[in-house]
Design brief:
It contains 4 helices and 18 strands. By secondary structure, the protein is mainly β. Strand 13 and strand 14 form a beta hairpin. The termini are far apart. The structure holds manganese (II) ion.
C-alpha cells in the first residue's frame, strides 16, 4: 500500500436501495435549462436556448437527512429539484437507442445554487462555477437500480419547503429526455461507471433560509429530505 503525506479524503458514495454495497461516485454532471417553464422564469426563451452541461465537485455530495449550513458568499441560496441518473456502464458517443442501457439507477437530487452569484456571472460572461460548485451543493437520495425497460420517463417531480409546495412538474416536461441527456453528454465526455447526472429542474425555484425543511420527491422513485441550518464559522 502506498503512503500519502496525509490521509486521503473519503471516497464520495451513495447508498443503493436493496443493497448493502454503495455506489462510488466519480463525477457529477448537471444539465442547465432542461424544462421550458424554468427557462421562462429565469428570463430566457426556450425556443432559442438548448440545454448544456456543467459540473459540481464530487465531494459536494450530501446524503438524505443531512443538515446543510447556509453557504458562504450568497444572500440568495436556492433549491432546484431534479431527477438523478447514475451511470453504471462506460461509453462515449453513445447511441440514443442504447443510452438507457448505460444507467445503473435513478434517484432524487437538489441542485443547490447561489443564485445571486450565478446571475452575476452570467451577466458578466464568466463561468457559472461560483454559483453552482460549492461545498454541500449536491444533496442526493439513495439510488434505485433500474433496467432500461423500467426507466422512469414520466412522473410527478416536486419540492416542498416547510410543507408548502414550491416546485411541481413532471419528468415528461424535460426538453432533452433522459436518453437524450446521456447521448448528448457522451459526445462531450466519456461516461464512466460512478458518474452522476442531475437532469435539470422544473419551474418554481426559490430562496432557502436557515430553519427550512426541504422535501424533494419524484413519483415512483423516492424522496430526499434536508434541513438548512445557520452557518457556523
Ligand atoms: Mn439545475
Amino acid at each position: 500500500m502506498s503512503d500519502f503525506v496525509f490521509s486521503p479524503p473519503p471516497l464520495a458514495s451513495l447508498s443503493v436501495r436493496g443493497s448493502r454495497a454503495r455506489f462510488p461516485v466519480r463525477r457529477i454532471y448537471c444539465v442547465g435549462r432542461n424544462y421550458s417553464d424554468h427557462i421562462r422564469e429565469m428570463g430566457g426563451d426556450p425556443d432559442r436556448e438548448i440545454p448544456f452541461f456543467f459540473q459540481k465537485p464530487t465531494d459536494s455530495i450530501v446524503e438524505n437527512g443531512s443538515r446543510i449550513p447556509y453557504p458562504l458568499f450568497t444572500s440568495d441560496f436556492q433549491h432546484e429539484v431534479e431527477l438523478l441518473i447514475a451511470i453504471g456502464k462506460e461509453g462515449a458517443d453513445i447511441r440514443l437507442d442504447e443510452a438507457l442501457d448505460h444507467v445503473f439507477g435513478v434517484g432524487v437530487c437538489i441542485d443547490l445554487t447561489r443564485r445571486d452569484v450565478q446571475v452575476e456571472a452570467r451577466k458578466t460572461g464568466r463561468p457559472w462555477e461560483i454559483g453552482k460548485s460549492f461545498d454541500e451543493s449536491a444533496p442526493c437520495s439513495e439510488l434505485v437500480p433500474v433496467t432500461s425497460a423500467e426507466f422512469p420517463e414520466s412522473g410527478a417531480i416536486e419540492l416542498r419547503v416547510n410543507d408548502q409546495t414550491r416546485q411541481h412538474g413532471d419528468l415528461r416536461q424535460m426538453i432533452w429526455s433522459s436518453a437524450e441527456v446521456i447521448q448528448q453528454l457522451s459526445t462531450q465526455y466519456r461516461l464512466m461507471p460512478g458518474d452522476l447526472i442531475m437532469t435539470g429542474t422544473p419551474a418554481g425555484v426559490g430562496p432557502l433560509t436557515p430553519g427550512d425543511r426541504v422535501l424533494a420527491t419524484i413519483e415512483g422513485i423516492g424522496s430526499l429530505e434536508i434541513e438548512i441550518v445557520q452557518e457556523e464559522r
